[in-house]
Write a structure and sequence with these properties.
The protein has about 850 residues and is an alpha+beta fold. The protein is built from 30 helices and 31 strands. The protein is about 45% helix and about 25% strand. An eight-stranded mixed beta barrel has the order 23-24-26-27-28-29-30-31, surrounded by four helices. Strands 2-1-5-4-3 form a five-stranded antiparallel beta sheet. A hairpin with a 5-residue loop joins strand 9 (about 255-265) and strand 10. The model is unreliable at about 1-15 (pLDDT under 50).
Length: about 850
């Protein structure tokens, strides 16, 4: 058998020794079976733990105490940016920290407590970026050695959120602390929980003095308590409010604040209190109070003023009209609201008003105008309105405020005064003053249009006999009839004036030829010679007429009237009841010219010449920028002789060169005196005559004058007329270029009266042009002259030239030139030409 036993009796086979042996074998067998079972269970457990270790979502590791990683799972490798755990096993865990810590102290605490749970740590990923982890670690024994076993959970997302929240909280705290508005937070009992520094500054209390106090009981103005309690009730119902209250500061001052308050809610939407933003508005409230008081005062003034006060939109629509409208125009204010104010203006005044309105809005300056406006009863009344643009805070014109008054009575008085000043009281005809004004205007037109013009001087024959025999009353009736017949015999554009006594003058403008004047004179003689019935008597009267024709018999009003008067006396000398043309004897003219020549030759030797200066004013600054030197002849017998009388003679006799040289030198010397005295920046302007401009030594003459006076050439301006410049353009350009090289300024005088080519004007080396005074005199009445002046200024500026206007005499002329951008002006409006010592006497206008 398997055991080697013989067959014996039963008793022999199961001896005690056999039984004992069998027991031992059985125990060994059972022990082997149990060990096998235990080993199998251990292997199952180990597989289960390894599976849990490797598949754990958390990072799991086993490290030696020196930091060496003994084992870890792939989850930990992923947290740290590695491909798998094999890259980590064997490396030092301490290399994963950004900074090395107290390792020995950490191990000592771990041995003491055995375990640390939920500790936040920051490790480096493989790419060097940080990763935040939540660590739990234990110190365990593995046989005879100690190791660290732990788990790591990635909390980077939560950490970033916490950091962002902390930064956001920090930013908002800084914002609250630095706010320019006060911030106050209270609970539902209105006890103060938080205030920012601005709120403390606003009311004068410290934060410690405020926290825990009931806000409105000691801060708010008592009269505002009810309002605050009402707002608190609404806030507790979740309603946000904005309101204004008064607050008493610690020092007792009361200030106004604007409060924007809203509820503070918890996560469940329950109101926990409120938070309010406080902004001081004391200055605004005081301003609003002052504005209301001011508005009330002005409204009271407007409502009770006898002047009509109104507000208009920019298109003229009436927005407000004061009650005075009823008394002045017959309308109730409500009847005119929403209607354009221009709808009631006289048609003839509409363009003028529109221009004034446009100018006011463009210049943003007040404007005062007189015009006619329709009354409710259908008549027109004269109004004077001062309008002022109303600007908004952003500088834009929003409305127009106007104050209007009825000036109908004043207008009647003014018209009566003006009529009396310019008309004869007996006949109603223009008087001497108005006649001269019209003659001056007509002469300017005649010159530009190159058409003849005639002046007649009428004197009734033997009129003194009528007065002496029939009385002055009859004489006056006779003069009225004569005046009426003269008016009926002339064209509407002609002017008949009574010069005084029995003398009349007639202006015949726009003649086709010189032969028209005698024909009109013959008609007048026939008309006046007709019988005249006065007080039941039939009277006969004749007249003597003298005729002077422009330009043959003179080119200015005084000469024409004088020559017509002389011709009238010749008519009387030849038998009366006739007319005579102005034909002065040639020998008389020759004698007068000879006397003039002889006098001029002695004038320089006797120092009879003087220089008068006329200031040139800058429209931009109002300062004197130049002086025009004008020569005058102080004749020992005749007094001051006008340049118009002796300059042509001096030009013909060539004495003008010597006179011009003297004027040039004296003007430069005077300019130097001014530069050393009151007018250091003013230039002096000297006119060059045609013969002087063409003189071969002109440049030398000018250089010597400047050197003699010690004057900088820049302060000398030479003026030549437009006609002189155009005589020989090539020579003109050469001469002007030579003078400009010296440094002197060049100006074209009397610009617009000649026939210069714009092409040549463009090539002339000049600095400025001077508008002829004939254009300036007419700009108030002549649209054509206004257009010419505007065009000249625009053209000159386009060529880079300065523009000076001569002959400025009225406010209207000055204002028009200023609007058109003229640079400098001169004329009687500021000062006539005066001696040098009187330059400072004229007043600024």
């Amino acid at each position: 058998g398997f055991l080697g036993f013989n067959s014996t009796t039963r008793e022999d086979a199961w001896s005690e020794e056999t039984i004992a042996l069998l027991k031992i074998v059985g125990e060994i067998f059972v022990s082997a079976i149990e060990r096998k079972r235990s080993e199998k269970a251990l292997r199952v457990s180990e597989r289960q733990h390894r599976l849990l270790f490797e598949r754990n979502l958390a990072g799991v590791y086993r490290n030696a105490l020196d930091g060496r990683i003994l084992d870890c799972n792939d989850a930990l490798a992923r947290f740290l940016g590695y491909q798998d755990r094999e890259e980590l096993i064997g490396t030092s865990a301490y290399d994963l920290y950004f900074e090395s810590g107290d390792r020995e102290g950490f191990l000592a605490r771990l041995r003491k407590y055995g375990h640390f749970s939920s500790v936040e740590i920051c490790l480096k990923r493989k790419d060097g970026t940080p990763v935040w982890l939540l660590e739990s670690v234990s110190l365990v024994h593995d046989g005879e050695r100690e190791i660290l076993e732990g788990t790591l959970i990635d909390i980077s997302g939560r950490k970033l959120s916490e950091n962002a929240l902390a930064q956001s909280e920090q930013r908002y705290r800084a914002l609250v602390e630095r706010m320019r508005e006060g911030l106050l937070q209270v609970d539902n009992d209105d006890r103060i929980e938080f205030v920012n520094p601005r709120y403390c500054e606003l009311i004068g209390y410290s934060r410690d003095e405020l926290i825990g106090r009931i806000a409105y009981e000691f801060l708010a103005f008592p009269e505002d308590h009810d309002l605050i309690r009402k707002k608190n009730d609404e806030r507790r119902r979740g309603i946000s409010e904005q309101y204004e209250i008064r607050v008493r500061r610690k020092n007792g001052d009361v200030i106004w604040v604007e409060v924007g308050a809203g509820p503070v809610l918890d996560a469940n939407g329950t109101v926990m209190g409120s938070i309010g933003v406080y902004n001081e508005i004391t200055a605004r409230k005081l301003g609003e109070t002052a504005l209301r008081e001011s508005e009330a005062r002005y409204r009271l003034m407007a409502e009770n003023s006898t002047d009509m006060i109104s507000r208009h939109a920019l298109d003229g629509t009436n927005l407000y009209i004061s009650p005075a409208c009823t008394a002045l125009l017959g309308y109730e204010p409500v009847e005119l609201i929403g209607i354009s104010c221009y709808a009631f203006i006289h048609p003839l005044d509409e363009p003028y008003m529109a221009e004034a309105q446009s100018r006011m809005l463009e210049e943003s300056t007040p404007s005062t105008v007189s015009y006619r406006i329709l009354h409710k009863n259908g008549s027109y009344v004269w109004f004077e309105t001062t309008s002022r643009p109303l600007m908004s805070s952003d500088g834009v014109i929003r409305e127009v405020i106007a104050v209007s008054r009825d000036i109908s009575e004043r207008k009647k008085v003014e018209e009566q005064i003006e009529y009396q000043a310019y008309h004869d009281a007996l006949t109603g005809l223009p008087n001497r003053l108005l006649f001269k004004d019209r003659l001056t205007v007509a002469l300017a037109h005649a010159r530009r249009q190159q058409r003849p013009l005639a002046v007649m001087f009428l004197d009734l024959d033997h009129f003194k006999l009528v007065n002496d025999t029939l009385g002055h009353s009859t004489g006056d009736q006779l003069l009225k009839v004569v005046a009426q017949r003269l008016q009926e015999s002339l064209r509407e554009e002609d002017t008949i004036a009574r010069m005084g006594g029995d003398e009349f003058t007639v202006l015949l403008s726009r003649l086709h030829g010189t032969e028209d004047a005698p024909m009109v004179a013959a008609k007048l003689l026939e008309t006046i010679a007709q019988p005249i019935a006065v007080d039941g008597q039939e009277l006969f009267i004749t007249t003597s007429i003298g005729i002077a024709i422009c330009p043959h018999d003179g080119e200015n009003a005084e000469i024409l009237l004088k020559n017509a008067d002389n011709a009238m006396y010749r008519a009387k000398e030849t038998g009366r009841n006739s007319y005579q043309l102005c034909t002065p004897a040639m020998n008389i003219r020759a004698l007068e010219r000879l006397a003039m020549e002889n006098g001029l030759r002695r004038a320089l030797e006797r120092n009879e010449f003087v220089i008068h200066y006329q200031p040139q004013i800058s429209l931009a600054t109002g300062a004197i920028v130049g002086m025009e030197a004008l020569v005058r002849w102080q004749h020992p017998d005749q007094g001051i002789v006008s340049p118009a009388a002796f300059i042509p003679v001096a030009e013909d006799t060539r004495m003008i060169v010597e006179i011009g040289e003297w004027v040039l030198r004296e003007a430069c010397v005077q300019a130097r005196r001014w530069h050393d005295g009151p007018y250091p920046l003013a230039r002096v302007a000297v006119n060059l005559s045609p013969r002087q401009f063409q003189h071969s030594d002109l440049k030398k003459m000018i250089a010597e004058a400047l050197d003699y006076a010690g004057l900088d050439p820049h302060f000398l301006e030479l003026e030549i007329t437009e006609g002189t410049a155009m005589q020989n353009t090539e020579r003109t350009i050469a001469t002007l270029t030579s003078l400009r090289e010296m440094g002197v300024m060049i100006s074209i005088d009397d610009f617009g009266t000649g026939h210069s080519s714009l092409n040549y004007l463009r090539t002339f080396p000049i600095d400025s042009v001077k508008l002829d005074q004939t254009f300036v005199h007419e700009i108030e009445v002549s649209p054509r002259d206004r257009a010419i002046v505007s065009a000249v200024i625009s053209m000159a500026h386009g060529l880079g030239l300065r523009v000076t206007a001569e002959g400025v005499e009225t406010d209207a002329q000055l204002e028009f030139l200023r609007q058109e951008g003229c640079d400098d002006v001169q004329g009687f409006y500021f000062s006539a030409a005066v001696t040098a010592d009187r330059i400072g006497d004229f007043g600024e206008r």
